[in-house]
Amino acid sequence: MSIHTENKKKVTTVQLTKMKQNREKISVLTAYDFTMAQIIDNAGIDVILVGDSASNTMVGNATTLSITIEQMIFYAKSVVNGTKRALVIVDMPFGTCSGDPLRSLESAIKMMRETGADAIKVEGGSEIKDDVKKIIDAGIPVMAHLGLMPQSINKYGTYAIRGKDEKEAEKLMQDCLLMEELGAFGILLEKIPAKLATEISEKIKIPTIGIGAGSGTDGQVLVIQDVMGMNKEFSPKFLRRYADLHTIMTEATQHYISDVKAQKFPNENESY
Questions:
Q1: Model pTM score
Q2: Pairing of strands 47-50, 26-30
């Protein structure tokens, strides 16, 4: 049982920093709907990320680029409605925080106002420093996302590991220090060498959350469909499946179909 399961006090960005200081790892999972959010919140998860991965997992798009702010607001509001304790962070989708500080602020305000979320997450480093500063100065908590940034997939051309060469690793370190200086409350590090992620985590005072970044970060995040084994096609090295819901749900559906066809459902006790 999580040490936080019985503690119903709302998780805050300040608490995440204290967890880092106390060397207590931060648990993060994605969610995109009321029911799933309610389940993992009751289980004691520290943070729920409403990721733009909803574009893939909920809509079936090939990349995260297609999802709109209106769609993200819909998913985020659903998650907020199902959450009592966890900190809820929402991704700003592609194009909503990309070089126009005033427009980025308007999008961030819209996201926070219409969802009731606790914070937002933005992809990018020094290129969007003015956007990030504008949003934070307005009182909106921001988590940065660095390393592999799926919204820039067309620039990268691949989902391969980032920060392997010295030049890119140095820029990544500088971007992390910059985001800390700007006032970001945390940084998500995706698919970078474990050694580099550990060095960053030790150098900055704000929490780091890793995905495919080794065990040296201050916390870990995975996509809920991957963790629960609902998606069998996606099997990266960093993924550990904790359940096989794909098989369970398939068998349950087949059982239901069989009972309906054989007129075993509903029975007398299930009828009015």
A1: 0.95
A2: parallel
